[in-house]
Amino acid sequence: MTIKLLTNRIKEVFLGLIIFEALSFWLWYFPGWSNLFFLLIVLAAFVISLYSLEWGIYLILAELFIGSHGHAIDLYLGSYHLALRIGLFVVVFVAMLYHLYQKRDLHLLAAVNKKWLSLLIVMLLIGIVQGVLRNGLSNTFFDANGYLFLLLLPAFYLVFNPKFLINVFRLLLIAVNWLMIKTYLLLFAFSHDLSWLDLSILYRWIRDQRFGEITHVSNNFYRIFMQSQLYGAVAIILILVVIYFWSKNNIKIKDQWYLYCSLLMSVALVLASFSRSYWVGLLLTLFIVFLILLIKGYLNWKRLLITLSIFALTIGLSIILLFTWTSSWHGGQLTSRALELTESAVSSRQAQLIPLKNAILQAPNFGSGFGHEVTYQSSDPRIKNEQNPTGLYTTSAFEWGYLDIMLKIGIFGLLAYLAAIYTIYLKNANLGQNKVKIDPLKLGFAYSIILLCVINIFSPYLNHPLGIGLLLINFYHEP
Fold this sequence. Notes:
Layout: H1 9-29, H2 34-51, H3 53-67, E1 74-77, E2 80-83, H4 84-103, H5 106-112, H6 115-135, H7 137-144, H8 153-157, H9 164-191, H10 199-208, E3 212-218, E4 221-226, H11 230-245, H12 253-273, H13 276-296, H14 301-325, H15 331-341, H16 343-362, E5 374-377, E6 392-395, H17 401-429, H18 440-458, H19 465-474
Antiparallel strand pairs: 1-2, 3-4, 5-6
């Protein structure tokens, strides 16, 4: 099987992402135009999805890959801001219903109706009902709305294009490469304190549209973290699997170089995030994949050495790039300081453990429903300050991903979710007996589920469209 990464559409898609980001900034700066463009974009997405549901899915994924919390463009309804992600979800969902009606094929729905997925949906419905009864409609909706993306599962099953995964891979690489450029442009602007640029405006745009966080580390060095950088880690797993399994005869020279450059940019992106969750997730996932290949008898030491050498080289180049780009030469000191800044998040996680455990034990089997709040005492300076000297904080959102799920839908809900994830993983992870027919992309996306599950220990993604979107990609129906 051959792979072609560089196509004529790459420039168009890349330019489209740049225009989208520029439009996001302009509409944030001039919010009076935001509602109009929001409606125009959503209407265009609806028309495109009616014509081709597959293209509607690509629009959804493109927004996920770069949009973090989905508020790049908002619809202002009084004090409430409706995210573009919700708008895209609604129109693609409606288009999906239209395509299902056109096909009138109940076998499609039966195929989607897997045992564990059905049980998960039942547990989620129980969590929603309990949430509404105990915690109120508003709290329940804002806590559970991320799971709405599971309703798009039939849409991915309706995709009968054998090139779907390669198209998603191309889109992912373009998005991650753009995200790296955006991250390093922000890093350069803040690290060099550009006098001709109002950095406060950039900071507020990133913060208000919930793209991520910009944190001062030391001297002229800043940490740029965005939730969508998760897909930089996903891209690393995918590219390494492709490099390991695909021989050079299957990839043209220019595509090979594009792959290597994309790996470098993905590593540089994840490095700049200074996210321990991503770093630990990558290391553990690579170790687990190594064990899988070893146990299954697919370990080729020569290929492994080549793949790891390329990976190590990109890590070295990324470290050099990061510190030369910011003119920060005390790498060890900066890394230490950056990791110190993440201690606040670590302390918050530790502070959540006992209160979460006690709350879970109150309703261990079926949970307390979505929107259930827990109060804990935090030493995080973002919480414990002059306005809140005690550090007491009440929330329904928690850093411990699996504990958050158990709190809302209980141990039975968590087990159903994990079983459903394992079912989806097995769909693409079966190596089989024929080494020639292995599809590295299917395998890479399957292994990215392992990455997602590891990261979810420390950072909640399985209850968020960013993580659920990755699961849906793996569920597509191969013709």
